Amino acid sequence: MTGKEPGTHPRHALAPLLTSPVRLSVVAALSPLEKAEFSFVRDLVEVSDSVLSKQVAALEEAGWITVQKGRVERRPRTWLSLTKEGRAAYRQHLDALRAIAGGQGLDSPA
Prior knowledge:
Blueprint: H1 21-30, E1 36-37, H2 38-45, H3 49-61, E2 65-72, E3 75-82, H4 84-101
Antiparallel strand pairs: 1-3, 2-3
Helix pairs in contact: 1-2
């Protein structure tokens, strides 16, 4: 490979944004759900409010998560949900991890 050709190893399909364990955990937590409360995700992923806020901001900036604020009775609430693009990026990332773990893209020993 000359460096100008695109790589064929599955790692090239990994989403750099999801190489953070916290961001990957957040996206994984949201993937089976339509939406989830911020506090639910925080507790599930076992991080502080500030850590989750920072990671959610990065995912929201990428267009992978939407943040909806509202109230339940008089209490403020924040809900998180994956966008269509976020779900696609997560699926592609998982497929790449499976390919790497399965040895795809690796030459067989001679």
